[in-house]
């Protein structure tokens, strides 16, 4: 086990930069999730750590060792791929044993390691099968087994669950988390799924356009997003954003003239974006309403209901209400939220105010 | 399609007629190989097997004929077998290696190499046969197995086929092997080769038959009867002008010439089908 340190890590393809200097110190045993929309460079970042992509500039350290020029096999890492990348002609056992055989381990040692990993992953009965005889979830386990038997310093996961169906994905997510806690191996996990990211991570790296927008614990990112991008990306349904203008006092004025108290002074005339999460909005008695939205659609999820509403100025607004909402389309819904739940971002830079 | 109706015999009949048309000459050939030359030349020729099966085949295999200057057919068969095997194995080996280089390595001039190989597809053996003959003759390779086989080994078709197959291997597989510590040769041996086995089997069948049936090149490059192949051997046995042709021996030789390709097709087909059933894709 080891720490992983990224220092001003950059990647460019033929002069076109895709990673613009990422700095991150990953502690020994930590589970880090790199999350971001497709094309944000998250897989590239992981592949650089794996040694499958060259580093344009900056430094990657695993433990104390700088690994920029070290071959993947010598980095003491193991990677789990999105499509599993199992050797189709080899049995489950041979797939897991292949890397060990190349490293010249004794057959008894290989047998012991594979058996141990197979026991952890409940693959014991499948060792003689070929990958094509396995279900998606089982293949995923074999891919993880192949990583575990190597007993690496760092696990790298490249969207390992995205080829599984929703139910299996939730199950495997739990298994990966438990496995990592049990083994205590430093893990770096790439995903575009923010639920996966929130549930697995000790700390998250939110990557956008090759820039690490924010690095922190999932709840920290949820409660205090550093930028509008992070605010919109973390949390489901996504945060509502409303354009507003500062009044010099503790209130801001939304487009359309509604004044909203935000609990902190905002400079007069400042162009800001107000962020409010759907779950922090509540229905209020008509007289106390800050805003009234017209209901356009209600999605009933059972435990709660997602109300798609529209403000008088035409801006869409999502509201999450507990339980099964009886609201009909077209209803005027008086809503309110506490000043403490409001996030403010500078409209130009997207930075948190 | 209605398989149980009253007209079910129609396709069967069509197939039977087709098979009869295809198989009849082979049948006649076999029948003739069990008769004496006199019996064959009698009109009409008997369509029932004669009594000289062992005699004819024994004589052809061990003694040959006057026109082959006494070189036995067994020798022709051996020559053909060596030629077909060397060509098939050589073509597969060279194509596998060149396709592997073109697909998995980034070297300067990679695309030029690919296109050069590709362009040779447009040049069949017959087109380049004179310059090739010149080279082989100057190297003193006339009447040798090297001269017989090496010029036919380079194969653009097989290289392209393997290239197309290698391109379907996912990048992740290569990367997983890199992480496992497999170098290029190890990856080739442990992953690429086993995954290509079905393709190799299919190509072997095709290339063996191709090598076995070569006519023009062995005709040019062999002079002595002892280095000639079975296909040329049959031609040599059929005398022109006043030399009498021992038709019974020619027919026996023809039957013998058909057997090895048939055996390869039949034997490899089982393997080939197994490969298809066990397909990894």
Question: Main traits of this protein?
Answer:
heterodimer; A: 353 residues; alpha+beta; Rossmann fold; OB fold (Dihydrolipoamide Acetyltransferase, E2P); 2 domains; six-stranded mixed beta sheet; five-stranded antiparallel beta sheet; 8 helices; 20 strands; 33% strand; B: 281 residues; mainly alpha; MetI-like fold; 14 helices; 0% strand
Itemize the secondary structure elements and their pairings.
The complex is a heterodimer of chains A (353) and B (281).
Chain A: E1 4-13, E2 16-26, E3 31-35, H1 42-50, E4 57-62, E5 65-66, E6 77-80, H2 92-102, H3 107-121, H4 136-149, E7 154-158, H5 166-183, E8 186-191, H6 194-200, E9 203-208, E10 211-216, H7 218-223, H8 228-233, E11 240-246, E12 251-254, E13 259-261, E14 271-276, E15 282-283, E16 291-300, E17 304-310, E18 316-322, E19 332-336, E20 343-346
Parallel strand pairs in A: 3-8, 3-9, 6-7, 7-8
Antiparallel strand pairs in A: 1-2, 1-4, 4-5, 9-10, 11-12, 11-14, 12-13, 14-20, 15-19, 16-17, 16-19, 17-18
Helix pairs in contact in A: 2-3, 2-4, 3-4
Chain B: H1 9-32, H2 37-41, H3 53-63, H4 73-104, H5 110-120, H6 129-138, H7 145-149, H8 156-167, H9 171-180, H10 184-195, H11 197-212, H12 216-221, H13 230-237, H14 247-277
Helix pairs in contact in B: 1-14, 3-14, 4-8, 4-11, 5-8, 11-14, 13-14
Describe this structure in words.
The complex is a heterodimer of chains A (353) and B (281). Chain A contains 8 helices and 20 strands. Chain A is of the alpha+beta class and 353 residues long. Chain A has 2 domains: 4-233, Rossmann fold, CATH 3.40.50; 240-346, OB fold (Dihydrolipoamide Acetyltransferase, E2P). A 6-stranded mixed beta sheet of chain A has the order 6-7-8-3-9-10, with helices on both faces. In chain A, a hairpin with a 5-residue loop joins strand 17 (304-310) and strand 18 (316-322). The radius of gyration of chain A is 24 Å and the shape is elongated. The model of chain A has no long low-confidence stretch (mean pLDDT 91). Chain B is mainly α. Chain B has a domain at 70-229 and 259-277: MetI-like (MetI-like fold), CATH 1.10.3720. Chain B has 14 helices and no strands. In chain B, helix 3 (53-63) crosses helix 14 (247-277) and helix 11 (197-212) packs antiparallel against helix 14 (247-277). The interface between A and B is medium-sized, with 24 and 18 residues.
